[in-house]
Give the backbone structure.
Amino acid sequence: MPWPPEGPLPTVDVLVPAPTPDGPGLVLIRRAHPPAGWALPGGFVDRGEKVEDAALRELLEETGLRGALVELLGVYSDPARDPRRHTLSVVYVARAEGEPTGGDDASEARVFGGAALRALARGEAGADGLRLAFDHARIVSDYLCWLETGRRPAPAPAQGDGRQ
């Protein structure tokens, strides 16, 4: 089979909870390359690599944090989720300790919490004028809803399945 495949490219994203004085927080990275914006640590799965290994590798490369995967939040596959090409992302929640620092494809890494995180989850720009890249606003919104209700996000409706 030729690589990359004709279909969507596999990616991973990692939600790293971090407590803040304003409530739940997450580690986000500032993207060093287009598309611009804040994002969850993550990236492409290498050929022959398990998605779990890719998630931990990307977390370390982009934030300097060594982590352990503790939950699978979901799989996100909207063809429009990445403006560069069709991807699908396996999204994990990980436990990690330490101070995040930007590396690899991240020019910066830091914790966002409280009102700032909720605004980004709504698709709004942060104080620096940057929004969450890709479909990460939806992923962060789903994560915050899961924290509040204990319910995992429902799959997005399939085209033509009649759900709204």
Observations:
- The chain has one domain: 16-149.
- The chain has a mean pLDDT of 91.
- The two ends are 37 Å apart (CA to CA).
